[in-house]
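Reading a protein record of the kind used here takes only a little practice. An example makes this concrete, so a full record is given next.
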Amino acid sequence: MNAGCTVHTFTFNCAVKTEVCSQDLEYDANCDPDNPRRIKYEDILAASRRMVGQIVRTQCPLAHMSETLGVELYMKQEFLQYSGCFKERGVRNALVLLSDEQKKLGVITASFGNNGIAMAYNSSMLGIPCSVVMPFKASIFKRTLAERLGAKIILHGRDMAESKRHAMSVAREKKLTFINGFDHPNIIEGQGTVGIEIVEQLPTVDAVLVPCGGGSLLTGVAIAIKHLKPDTEIYGIETDKTCSMVEALKKNERVFIQIDSTIADALSVNKVGVNTFFNLKGIVDKMVVVKEDWVARAIMHIVEEEKFVVEGAGAVGVAALMAGLFPNLRGKKVVAICTGGNMDTTTLGRALERGMAAEGRLLKFKVSVSDRPTGLADLCAMLAGIGVSVRDCVPERACVKGEVTSIQWKIIAETRGWDHTKELVDMIKKHFKEYLFQEETERPEKTISVKRGPCLAPNPVCMQK
């Protein structure tokens, strides 16, 4: 009996010890759940003055897409920062406020890419040693860029949560300063300078669409704009695969969500920040979630119509407008913050093709034609006759049913849109006996499919008709 008691006590004590160690490891005095920091406009204004000449005051021009979208759309071009994203603002503010001893020992952060790139560049400019912990699935492009800009890259973890935990462990072991890239108070203050610039550049702005991952940009911008122009509506935008803030607000507590692959990796934060969650209630009018198919389409349209590249996270505001999620903003002056442009060419190519497919401009089909010398030539002539371009074609001779003299071609064709696609389908059905269209070939009914977060405004006006 005594032995049993001894074993039970030992097991219990070990469990308690493990839990305490885990809590100590992840404790960050700047992001303490028991003592969240209130972010003030005066601190954001001080950060703005502090960083004059150190970060780019990005442009906010009227978009060519305005007429199509039915709003007077302005794009805040944060991808013009040297590091290619808005993160540079918060990082710069946090670094210049470090003590001399902290600067000498160095800093460490966890990042999927953009925060690490910004930290690498600004640390290098200020002569501060920098380490960045990235998940194994972080973009090779972003990882290489951060390393090229001077950071020591540590690959660890399946997601941001595991990378952050490891970064905090290394910080304690090597006496480095850990900077939370989406929740440190100085980071939030720096991101808020975007809001000050928006009001200065467009004093009559009606609404601002802000991408939301951990929440630093949304919180900082909302605090700044609501102070300067309280009647401006602030919307936080997430994708259906990265909606950690919406889930937290629904449950009224910070919750962990699993995030797998996403086109908006910069929004891939499993658990939102302590300070961001605490500060944004009552100042953000609504959270909106947009499907990632719309994000791919937004990237494509921004490339084609605005002539610049925006990564998935930076395109979510435009995507939400394209998806018809803001009928209340029709005819109003709207700013979409294009947060970054750090996207590798592989992801860009996939986004463009998926965007085209979603709009009926790419069609994949199979058709069996005669294997005589003029068989393929006749097919190509028909396609060219109605203005269809062949992007790719692959022959299949062995595994084809039907006549032995026929050959099946797998074709990817480019059209002008749904009406042109229907013309192509009708032509193939008219002239060939064997064919297969594997994807939808008719224009889908436009339905608004969105998960809306709770309304956060004390006097909601955002969805009034």
Q: What stands out?
A: The first strand starts at residue 72 and ends at 77. The chain has three domains: 41-85+187-355, 87-185, 361-437. Residues 2-25 form the longest helix (24 residues). The two ends are 73 Å apart (CA to CA).
